[in-house]
Amino acid sequence: MPLASLNVITGPNGSGKSNLYRALRLLAETAQGGVVNSLAAEGGLNSTFWAGPEKISKKMRSGDVPIQGTPRQDVMRLKLGFNTEEYGYAISLGLPAPSTSAFSLDPEIKRECIWAGPHYRPACLLVDRNGPMVRVRDGRQWHVVDQHLGLYNSMFDNGADPSTAPEVFHLRETIRGWRFYDHFRTDADAPARKAQLGTRTPVMHHDGRDVAAAIQTIVEIGDVHSLDEAIADAFPGASVAIVKHEDGRFSIRFLQRGLLRPLDGAELSDGTLRYILWVAALLTPRPPPLMVLNEPETSLHPDLLPALARLIVKVSEKTQVWVVSHANRLIAALEEETHCHTVKLEKTLGGTEIYGQGILDEPSWHWPD
Questions:
Q1: Mind listing the pLDDT tens digit for each residue in 194-237?
Q2: How many alpha carbons lie under 13 Å from residue 147 in its C-beta half-sphere?
Q3: CA 139, 141, 146, 152 torsion: positive or negative?
Q4: 166-176 helix and 17-29 helix, angle to the nearest 10 degrees
Q5: N or C: which terminal CB in the chain sees fewer CB atoms within 10 Å?
């Protein structure tokens, strides 16, 4: 899938948007040491495999014959990978050989590779993990840096030594910098509505619990002008202030034109609080290499979506942004930008495909053998 600085992922329900989002989160877990646990939470490795036949013939596609399975020819692997202009990474997971272990359903990492440049070629390979062995290229030679890596551990777990394997270390830190926002709590008991202990917070928690501290951090070391502008864009004449209590806790105060007193977090509507949470997340003083927003339109009134779109566009000038959405008004506002890249997904015989993308439109990609 080709990507740009601003990407909108859309499509009808059931087209695969959630699968794409979860696949990206699973890829991010490789650098956090939790890929096996995350797979277990998804229902195990078998639940991630393609549920259709190994090959779909032309007659199946035309409807001349029913869709049916055939004897499997290839081994079953879950492959995840991505490319930047600088580095590429791929991981392949499979089921272990039969054993008497109680953990016999845990997936194993069969292969991991890091290469230089935007396309994989054997000559560009920098780090190669095959089974338990990890080797690193040094000029024309290869050096083995680990021969006993656990098959359930990524090479990011043990091989990220900046002196012996700087590529592993660099890529691990890059992936760890990815941020995912898909659920902000705005219910009556949400932490964002209550005073919370405040410490410097350049990166807001994914559920928004430290929103007051995050906003105060933006005020002190971030772009406070953009903060004020984003609030006023959605709520003309309004502003947000942070109150510091004597016990070190911070809380939100929302000042709105026409009201004689500010509203605290407990009084805000779900939509207003959620918009403030998006502002705090997007205007982070520490921009990540990738930020993924899953259905940011949830609980927002349609009139707020153009203001949110303008904020997202501004953020995409500093970091790559994915927006997974099916809100037409938000999508239309984002697509007004010339650098917005829309990926429309569709379901074809149970499989997710990119609408309108042919063989000549696909980016160059080669999986390591």
A1: 999 999 999 999 999 999 999 999 999 999 999 999 999 999 99
A2: 2
A3: positive
A4: 140
A5: C
Single pTM value for the model: 0.90
What pLDDT digit, counting tens, does each position of 63-111 carry? 888 888 877 888 889 999 999 989 999 999 998 888 777 777 788 899 9
| pLDDT tops 80 at residue 308 | yes
Encoding tokens for residue 137?
């290229």
Residue with tokens 């040094």: 138
Question: DSSP assignment of 275-319, as one string?
Answer: HHHHHHHHT-SS--SEEEEE-TTTT--GGGHHHHHHHHHHHTTTS
Coil, helix or strand for 172?
helix
Locate tokens 């062995």: which residue?
133
DSSP 266: G
The span from the CA of 31 to the CA of 42, in Å, is 18
DSSP character for 99?
-
Tracing tokens 């609408």 back to the chain, one arrives at 355
Pairing of strands 239-244, 249-255: antiparallel
Q: Tabulate helix, strand, coil % of the chain (nearest 5).
A: 30, 25, 45
